[in-house]
Amino acid sequence: MAVRIKAVWEKLMGKTIAGHTLKIQLRNKKLFLHFDSPALKEELSYSKQKVIQMINEEFGEEVVREIIY
Prior knowledge:
Strand content: 15-25%
Number of strands: 3
C-alpha cells in the first residue's frame, strides 16, 4: 500500500511538497513521512487530518489513521 501512496503523493500534495518528501512508509495504518524541510514539516503538521482524509478518499477506504512526521 505504501507503494500506491507514493504513486499518488504528488497528485494529492502537489509538486512542491512531493519534491521535499524524502521517505514515505506505512505501518499499521500509520503513515510516516520524512521531509528535507523543517518549515514544511511544521506547516504540514497543522493539516494532518486533511491529508489523512485526502489519502483515504483517494483509495476509497481507511488506509491511514495517523500521520507521523
